[in-house]
Amino acid sequence: MQPLIPNSTSNNCGDVTGSNCVPYNGTPIPCLPNCTGWSVSDVLYNLGQESCYIQSMLNMSGLDLSCFYTPCPSCQNPTQLIPVLQLMINYMCSLQTQITSLQTQVNNLTSGTGSTVPCTNC
């Protein structure tokens, strides 16, 4: 963080105050514990830590998505949250379509309105 210069009209940086010496008096930050008494440097460091943690948790590169689809040989698995979620949603929608189709076929067979498949090994 750039140091605060009390006399901003001066190019002379004689009385510089570093961010370690500037108390954070801003609005409370929900993802940080009570930061009363923290310096601006402390707040920035902790926000950076939170950002790094979130990035590490959103890294999807280690997921095995092979049960959802078969990628082309030169394709890579998606590693970002939105494409992975969309892939999962598409797969679930496909399963729901298959389930609905099977339910219709079973209902037709049990009600006698559907075609029957002859038994060849009865």
Number of helical runs?
A: 2
Rg of Cα set: 30 Å
Residue share in helix:
40-55%
- The poorly predicted ranges are none
What topology emerges from the helices and strands here?
Elements: H1 40-57, H2 81-111
Short description:
The chain has 122 residues and is mostly helical. Helix content is 40%, strand content 0%.
Task: Describe the overall structure.
By secondary structure, the chain is mainly α. The chain folds into two domains: 57 residues, no CATH class; 59 residues, no CATH class. The protein contains two helices and no strands. The radius of gyration is 30 Å and the shape is elongated. The N and C termini lie far apart (81 Å).
